[in-house]
Design brief:
The chain is of the alpha+beta class and 528 residues long. The protein is 30% helix and 23% strand. Strands 3, 12, 14, 15, 17 and 18 form a six-stranded antiparallel β-sheet that branches. A hairpin with a 5-residue loop joins strand 4 and strand 5.
């Protein structure tokens, strides 16, 4: 997948935006979000003409909360067909040769992937510094959740919110794409195949105990008639359960499977996945939710050890609607490996370091982690010609839709796209200029669908911003961790800024934000 870093995304209005008049280049920098490395050599593509099928405003934030509206709204910009004629207009605006609206295509990683913040929390509580390569901001938004009103069944709900940013002409813009609400009783029958790491490394620091806890938590969420298979793997693979039909929650056979696991031998992750998928295909259930659940420390030292080659098995199976859930366990596990294979398998990637976390992910959040509401979700964001994205906190963004892979969305969940947009000049921003958010997706019945919200700058600034404030707080924490990893001497100032943003978003009754405040305090001691 072609991706972009969080900062300096499309903000170069000078020489960089002269490329907007050309047609030779793509709109994103290429790199791997798994390692945190990116190619900075890409230039901008020409803006893509905005779609003309935007409907009337829908699902807008309430206009009752106007606390973020500026006292003096700027005058409307010049006509979109004319070039700026003000002799004092910034050269950044003069350099933009096209005055057509700019459409960007955005993606967050699969909405259920949320290992990064749990790993960071674990390291901080153990008095360790968090390396930048483990930090994926969009996973923080997934893990801590930004609540939105649920969509109608088999649809999505789009909620854009915006408020002025730190500089003139800049704005924080957040778009939520929410799914339907669905309880455990609404789940389709499930066919689950466990792919269980029993290699020697799983004997370290209670890794196999965490694996047992995940199996027990999933067993507690299953119902009579669900089908479970399991393969264990170390240097070789062993089929230990095949097409077993569950009798009730906490089925004794599944609890016994958890209790009898033991660790020894090498780690043939590739062989384990292939054996697991073969078992999953053998018991594939038409009309059921088919999931492969791999639980591992991600360390591969036998057989094929290349992450991309191993991930291809997950990608091929995804085409057959066998989705992968990856569960990382243990300190020092291979995050890059686990993140790569789950990204290709289009399923959740979580990190479990305690029994309580296993119960949270596969008990309280079982539907969110395991189920599927709609497929192939991608956001089209159309901005006025003078506005560009300065910071993006998702996984991928481009002016070329072919460069952004759509992602699946779980029930009881939302994809959250948080960015800072910047006008080439604050004087260009007009209150009646439009920002359009359009989500394309595929329903459970495999029918292509789309929802559109077309809203003015005035409406956005006058609307509520509670979800945006919460998203900004979560982003501030994740980005502070990244920048501390890059500039450790600035840790105190970065943590102060993050704390200020988080406190502004909570009244002390938000468990997630309160946890973040506690982690900020703990990280001060680590980084002194």
């Amino acid at each position: 997948m072609r991706t972009l870093t969080s900062f300096s995304l499309l903000v170069a209005f000078g020489v960089g935006l002269n490329a907007c008049g050309d047609s030779a280049s793509t709109g994103v920098a290429e790199g791997s979000p798994r390692s945190g490395g990116y190619d900075a050599g890409a230039v901008l593509a020409p803006p893509i003409e905005a779609r003309s099928d935007a409907g009337a405003p829908a699902d807008l934030p309430s206009a009752a909360d106007a606390s973020t509206a500026p006292a003096d709204v700027p005058a409307p910009p010049v006509d979109a067909g004319e070039a700026p004629v003000d002799a004092e207009a910034p050269s950044a605006c003069a350099a933009i040769t096209s005055h057509e609206p700019v459409t960007l295509y955005l993606s967050a990683d699969d909405s259920n992937s949320m290992a990064s913040p749990a790993i960071a929390r674990r390291m901080i509580r153990r008095g360790q510094r968090v390396p930048a390569g483990l930090l994926r901001t969009y996973e923080f938004l997934n893990y801590y959740n930004v609540p939105y009103e649920a969509a109608e069944p088999d649809h999505v709900r789009i909620v854009p919110q915006m408020r002025p940013g730190a500089e003139a002409g800049s704005y924080e813009l957040q778009v939520g794409i929410a799914s339907e609400r669905r309880g455990v009783a609404d789940l389709r029958p499930m066919t689950i195949t466990f792919v269980l790491d029993t290699s020697g490394s799983m004997a370290e620091d209670q890794r196999i105990e965490r694996e047992r806890a995940v199996i027990r938590a999933i067993a507690g969420s299953l119902r009579a008639g669900d089908v479970v298979s399991a393969v264990t793997w170390s240097s070789d693979q062993r089929e230990v359960l095949s097409g077993y039909r569950v009798t009730r929650p906490d089925d004794p056979t599944l609890l016994n499977l958890a209790a009898t696991l033991s660790a020894s031998g090498g780690t043939d992750l590739s062989g384990g996945l292939h054996a697991g998928y073969a078992l999953a295909q053998r018991h594939y259930g038409e009309g059921r939710l088919n999931r492969v659940v791999v639980i591992s420390d991600g360390i591969a030292n036998v057989g094929v050890t290349d992450a991309r080659v191993i991930a291809e098995a997950a990608h091929v199976a995804e085409r057959e609607e066998i989705y992968l859930v990856g569960v990382g366990v243990g300190d020092g596990f291979d995050d890059t490996m686990m993140d790569t294979i789950t990204d290709r398998g289009r399923g959740a990637y979580v990190f479990v370091d305690t029994d309580a976390e296993a119960r949270e992910m596969f008990g309280a959040r079982f539907t969110e982690t395991m189920d599927l509401a709609v497929r192939a979700v991608r956001l089209e964001l159309t901005l006025p010609w003078y506005m560009r994205v300065a910071e993006f906190h998702g996984e991928a963004i481009s002016t070329d839709p072919r460069e952004v892979d759509p992602q699946h969305l779980a029930p009881n969940d939302a994809m959250v796209f948080h960015q800072v947009v910047q006008a080439c000049s604050a004087s260009m921003v007009g209150p009646d200029d439009h920002i359009v958010a359009r989500a394309t997706y595929t329903s459970r019945a495999r029918v292509p669908a789309a929802e559109t919200v077309d809203v003015t700058v005035r409406q956005l600034l006058a609307g509520g911003d509670a979800a945006l404030r919460r998203g900004s707080a979560i982003v501030a924490w994740a980005e502070a961790l990244k920048h501390i990893a890059e500039r450790p001497t600035d840790a105190g100032a970065l943590l102060d800024a993050a704390e200020h943003t988080v406190r502004a978003a909570t009244n002390g009754a938000d468990p997630a934000l309160d946890e973040i405040l506690g982690l900020i305090t703990a990280y001060r001691a680590v980084t002194r």
